[in-house]
């Protein structure tokens, strides 16, 4: 099928989702079939170590719209999503996770809003996160609060990676030279017209969460360093404050020496050394994060490598069949 023949692409990154695949397909396929559109589902396997790919290939035998893109290794959720966006061919592209915390039934509402309001992006906004743990809700709230103040007020509150985008938005995203994309910030930063559809966030259908605390911290760090120089400014202000504090300590020490009130002690020296050492280490760490991203950008290594794409394999088979169909010259018989 050509790009123009597809109305909708649904991109879903998967990592060790064997337990959730069947539930996901059972809910997603009826929703897409009822839309009456030409569609494809791009399932991007992010280097799973279980039978996710094998099960997807089995399901594809009875669902030709299912396209399986397998990456060579685990590269992370956002990079896997980037691979799916580059593979998607629809006029509209929806990104959704396979854990069914974001309801597939909302896709029809997103598409209707995009067409009725003539917008390029429709965000799925979670207005009820009661299914999440208190810790998850609190950390999510802190994340969005921080991003809105460091990055800009245009960051959608409580909008994750469940969204619908037009082909124009996807093309721009694919052309950006981002090494560590954070799409929940990149998409609103482009300034395309947008709308929102609210939904209730459900519990994970099966398996374990793929966003533990360590990955949440990494996502926050990538979000801040990729979209704001505020940490560097904070480091500068910390350095200035520490300098002023040390200057005050020097003045007080000289005054005490001049008055002959110098008492041998270690408290002031101990506090000063700890303060200066801590501030310097924080500043060096922040500088290191930015330099590391510059280093990665200069290397320009691909963020992911595709090991298998069922659509590309099908195109190759069709090409081979076409070559075999060339007219053959029959030799005269003796």
Give a structural overview.
This protein is of the alpha/beta class and 334 residues long. The chain has 2 domains: 3-212 and 302-313, Spore Coat Polysaccharide Biosynthesis Protein SpsA, Chain A; 230-299. The chain is built from 11 helices and 8 strands. An 8-stranded mixed beta sheet has the order 7-5-6-4-1-2-3-8, sandwiched between helices. Strand 1 (8-14), helix 1 (18-35) and strand 2 form a beta-alpha-beta unit. Helix 1 (18-35) runs parallel beside helix 2 and helix 9 (230-258) runs antiparallel to helix 10. The two termini are 46 Å apart. 27% of the residues are buried.
The tally of strands reads 8
Physical arrangement of strands within the biggest beta sheet: 7-5-6-4-1-2-3-8
Largest sheet: 8 strands, mixed
- The CATH topology of the largest domain is given as Spore Coat Polysaccharide Biosynthesis Protein SpsA, Chain A
Q: Give the fraction of residues assigned to helices.
A: 40-55%
């Amino acid at each position: 099928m050509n790009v123009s023949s597809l109305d909708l692409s649904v991109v879903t990154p998967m990592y060790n989702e064997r337990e959730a695949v069947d539930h996901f397909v059972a809910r997603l396929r009826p929703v897409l079939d009822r839309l009456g559109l030409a569609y494809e589902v791009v399932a991007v396997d992010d280097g799973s170590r279980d039978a996710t790919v094998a099960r997807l290939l089995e399901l594809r035998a009875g669902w030709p719209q299912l396209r399986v893109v397998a990456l060579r290794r685990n590269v992370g959720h956002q990079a896997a999503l980037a691979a799916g966006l580059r593979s998607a061919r629809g006029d509209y592209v929806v990104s959704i996770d396979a854990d069914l915390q974001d309801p597939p039934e909302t896709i029809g509402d997103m598409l209707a809003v995009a067409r009725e309001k003539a917008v390029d992006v429709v965000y799925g906004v979670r207005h009820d996160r009661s299914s999440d743990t208190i810790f998850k809700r609190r950390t999510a709230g802190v994340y969005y609060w921080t991003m809105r103040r460091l990055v800009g007020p245009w960051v959608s509150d409580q909008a994750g990676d469940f969204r619908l985008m037009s082909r124009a938005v996807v093309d721009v995203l694919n052309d950006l030279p981002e090494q560590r994309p954070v799409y929940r910030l990149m998409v609103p930063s482009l300034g395309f017209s947008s709308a929102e559809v609210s939904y209730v966030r459900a519990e994970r259908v099966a398996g374990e969460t793929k966003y533990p605390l360590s990955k949440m911290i990494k996502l926050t760090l990538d979000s801040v360093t990729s979209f704001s120089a505020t940490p560097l400014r904070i480091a500068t202000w910390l350095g200035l404050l520490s300098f002023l504090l040390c200057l005050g300590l020097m003045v007080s020490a000289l005054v005490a020496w001049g008055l002959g009130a110098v008492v041998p002690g270690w408290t002031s020296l101990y506090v000063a050394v700890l303060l200066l050492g801590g501030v310097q280490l924080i500043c060096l760490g922040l500088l290191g994060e930015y330099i590391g991203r510059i280093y990665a950008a200069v290397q320009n290594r691909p963020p992911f490598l595709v090991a298998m794409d069922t659509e590309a394999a099908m195109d190759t088979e069709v090409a081979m069949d076409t070559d075999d169909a060339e007219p053959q010259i029959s030799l005269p018989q003796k």
